[in-house]
Specification:
about 280 residues; mainly alpha; MetI-like fold; 2 domains; about 75% helix
Amino acid sequence: MRRRTSILHKVGIALILLWTLIPIYWAINSSFQTEAEEGSRPAHYLPLPVFTLNNYGQLLRGGDAFSHEILQTMLNSVIESGFATIGIVLVATLSGYAFARLSFRGRPLLFYTVLATMAIPVYALIIPVYRLFADIGLVNTYAGIVLVYISGLMPLGTWVMHHYFNSLPANIEEAGCVDGANRLQVLWHLMLPLSRPGIISTAIMSFLFSWAAFFFPLVLSTGLSTEPLSVAIPALQTRYTVPYTLLEAAGVLAIAIPAVVVLALNRYIVSGLLAGNAK
């Protein structure tokens, strides 16, 4: 029975991996082909012995309107995701420390209320957020999109940092207070260096979710000046007639940056999420 369960788990994991990786493989494979090769029948399911980099070269040169907009929206994504990550890490670190270490009236209720906001569906908020931002002039601005990312991802970041601060021994703070340090000094000089894996984990998740965001930036960005790459690729397909292989190359560029971040810093994600289990 146990062996059968183990086999079913492995089969399930394999199916999930295939479901996830086949579209990515197909996009990468198509991006290295010419339009004629991609449109040939039967299709080239395996990589061709001779491949082309012309699709990526055309995108990165920015010589036409489509490539220029791809580069501009990629820059928008970097700016919006970067500033959102900084804001989320700052707010989540302070709020996570407060909920983990400070005693004040209503702390448990407030903490679980913050976490409960993660269950609110996006489509229930998009209209009031848009009307609010339109009234204060934040539609189609970097600030508006960054604020939406921060407010949407702050509960998750707070939970991660609260989890991590709880895993640290309390006698570290007690020693700092005995030496005459106040709360902010203890946080800055003692707790933050020890909680670096949790901070990096929060930063990585914030960046990845911000980079992949679609619904809110679709509504709040009404022009090329703020439109992120996740919104631009499907939108540009309707504005320009471009080869399918060029679209695939743009999609590969869209996933390349978060993929590099995950592969390089994956151990911090795991250590940050599992920190409290080792307490």
